């Protein structure tokens, strides 16, 4: 019986291989039917990239103005206020004792 099937064995192996490749082409991770999902993911990643690029440009500009050779007094004062809680002599700061009550 095996002797009768032996000539068809290469054809069967090739058919199985082609079937596997066809299924992967259609339904695999990078298959034909998952193309729309990939395009949506690409659009999301491009939007995220644009957001991060804008944030990086802003941070680079701030860093440039905080260097000692090109120091911006206004930016330095703003950063001191934000990070250290400092203020100018003619400004008043009112601190809330319970900030969590405003979050609800």
TrEMBL record:
Keywords per UniProt: Coiled coil, Membrane, Transmembrane, Transmembrane helix
Superkingdom of source: Bacteria
Chain segments annotated as transmembrane: 7-26
Coiled coil: 35-69
Coiled coil in keyword set: yes
Protein name: Septum formation initiator family protein
